[in-house]
Structures are given as C-alpha cells and as structure tokens.
Write a structure and sequence with these properties.
rod-shaped
Length: 349
C-alpha cells in the first residue's frame, strides 16, 4: 500500500468519525488492520502504532472513569437507602416509646384516681361511724360484751378492705415497673440497631470510596463488598449491590480484554493477516520475551509471594539478556544495549 492509499484511509476514517458512525473499538480495529499492511519502521506504520496506542489508552481511561462514576452513583444510592433505613428504625422506636409512655401515664392516672377515691371513702366511712357512734351513745344501755363483739367485727372488716386496696395498688405498680423496664430495654435495642446500621453502611461507603483511589485494590474492595452483602437484609440495598457488582464485573471484563489486546497488539493481527499483506511476520523470540516481561509485571503486582518471586527472577534474566540496567515498568520495546529510559508505554526507536 502506498502513501495515497494511506491518505484515503485517513480521510474515510475522519468522515466516519464526523458522522458518528465509528466507535472507538472499531476505529482501533481499522488502524490495526492498516498497521499490518506497512513495513516495520515506515512512517505509515509508526503513525498507525501511535494512533492505536492513543486510542487504546483513551478507551481504557474512559472505561475506568465509567467504573468510578458507577461506584459514586451506587454509593449515593446506598446513602439514600441507609438514611431511609435509619429513619424507619427511629420512627418505629419513637412510636413504641410513645405507646409505652401512654400506657404508663394511664396507670399513673388510675393510681391517682384510686388514691382520691380511697381517701374519700375512708372519710365518709369514718364520718358515718362517728355519727352512728354518737347516735348509739345517745340511746345505748347494752352490756360491754355486745360492744366488744361489734368492735372486733368492725376491725376485721377494716383490715380486709385495706389489704384489698394494697393488693390492687401493688398490682398496678408491678405493671408500671414491667412496662418501664420493657421500655428501657427496647430503647436500648433500637439504639443498638441504629448504631449497627450506621456502622454497616459506613463500611459499605468506605469500600466504595476506595474505588476512586488505587486501582490495584479494587479486587479486594469488591471482595469486601461481597462479604458485607451476605449480611445485608435491606432489599433495596441488596438490589443496588447486586447491580453494582454485575456492572463492575462487566466493565472489568472489558478492561481486561482491552489489556490483553494491548499486550499482544500488532503481533496477533500480523499473524492473522499473514497471507494478505506482504510485510506481515510471525512473533519473534524478542517479541515473545517482551510479552512475557510485561505479563510478569502484572503477576508481580497481583500475585502471591511465590508468583512475585518467579516473575522477578524471569524479568531479571530478561533485563540482563537485553542489556536493560534497571526496572522501569512495562516496556513498548526492548532497546538493545544501554539503559532503557522512560516508563510504561513509552516508545523506543
């Protein structure tokens, strides 16, 4: 393919983008295809490589931003659900306390009325006795035995009446005490539930907050969210957590797929189009080593102690093999001899 064909390709691509007929992923595919048609080191191939790198980087950044937006949106919904849950518990608590207070007040009112009634009854009875005694004295001439018998009967009646009053009052006071104890216990229970709910939702909120910082910790954050989800009883929050986990895993799958394509890049496309373009070639030993080198960096970041040790040992060997003095992260190419300058994704020519 010549310069004119390359120019026509770019014009067509620009037109498709202008009329919004070309997604970023499709644009990458077209650049990869045109990249394979030109010889290594040509201006057209280098321009295609730069476009592919830039587009893939933007695609990953956009997807990462969408993950952060998803986390913030879900956290906002969780905050709303948390406030509604706490408000529901508080309303239930307040309603119970109000009902208990009403019952206690009713008993207090009854006790007060009983006290008043008893005092009035005692007064009226004492007055009647005095009046009867006065009348008896005015006309009495009977012996002392009759008087004593009547006095004993009166005393027994007084004792029984007073005892019945005491028992009735004692029963009401016991009810009042029981209600008061229940009120205190339930108030504590409601307050404990509120604090537990706040603590639970705070843990969820912290897990979502961390999504906006270190990408490498996102897997651990997701694991923590899944653990917290197991103890969740609120249906709305369960729904939001399930939706977030599903959306997040979908986005991570896209990022992982993009990362794989970015690692193998031109090599895969070149192999698949070997029979169609004269400048295609198979993966060389150096390209294979580069692929393993970059994969080992990922293993060192995410693996256990054994995986880290193996990745470090292999990359140390590869750096010595290609004359790389120090580890600068992932590489676009192995530079033969000398110190490799720069960091991940920097081009070396």
């Amino acid at each position: 393919m010549d310069e004119e064909s390359f120019s026509d390709f770019k014009k067509k691509l620009a037109h498709q983008k202008a009329i919004s007929e070309l997604a970023a992923a499709d644009e990458i595919k077209q650049w990869v295809k045109i990249q394979a048609a030109y010889k290594e080191g040509s201006d057209q191939r280098m321009e295609a490589e730069e476009q592919i790198y830039s587009l893939r980087k933007k695609l990953r950044e956009d997807e990462q931003k969408s993950v952060d937006t998803l986390a913030k949106s879900t956290k906002s919904k969780l905050d709303k659900a948390k406030n509604e849950e706490v408000k529901r518990i508080e309303d239930e608590r307040d309603a119970f306390v109000e009902a208990q207070d009403a019952k206690i007040k009713a008993i207090d009112d009854l006790l007060s009325k009983m006290q008043t009634s008893n005092e009035d009854e005692d007064y009226e009875r004492a007055m009647a006795e005095k009046q009867a005694r006065l009348a008896l004295l005015q006309s009495a001439v009977g012996p002392e035995g009759i008087a004593e018998r009547k006095q004993v009967g009166k005393d027994i009646e007084d004792m029984q009446r007073e005892h019945n009053r005491t028992l009735a009052k004692r029963g009401l006071e016991d009810q009042k005490k029981q209600l008061q104890e229940e009120k205190t216990a339930r108030e504590k229970d409601y307050n404990d539930k509120i604090e537990a709910a706040k603590s639970h939702y705070e843990e969820l909120a912290n897990a979502f907050d961390s999504f906006s910082s270190d990408t490498e910790l996102k897997a651990e954050n997701l694991k923590q969210i899944q653990i917290l989800k197991e103890s969740e009883k609120n249906e709305e929050i369960l729904k939001q957590l399930d939706q977030f986990i599903a959306d997040y895993q979908s986005k991570m799958d896209k990022l992982a797929a993009s990362a794989v394509v970015d690692e193998i890049g031109m090599v895969t496309e070149t192999s698949s189009s070997e029979n169609n373009f004269p400048f295609s070639k198979k993966m060389t030993e150096k390209e294979s080593d580069l692929l393993n080198y970059n994969r080992n960096i990922d293993k060192w970041k995410t693996g256990d102690a054994v995986a880290k040790s193996e990745a470090h040992a292999e990359n140390d060997y590869l750096r010595k093999k290609y004359g790389i003095v120090k580890d600068t992260g992932k590489l676009q190419k192995f530079h033969s001899g000398g110190i490799v300058q720069g960091v991940e994704a920097q081009r070396f020519r």
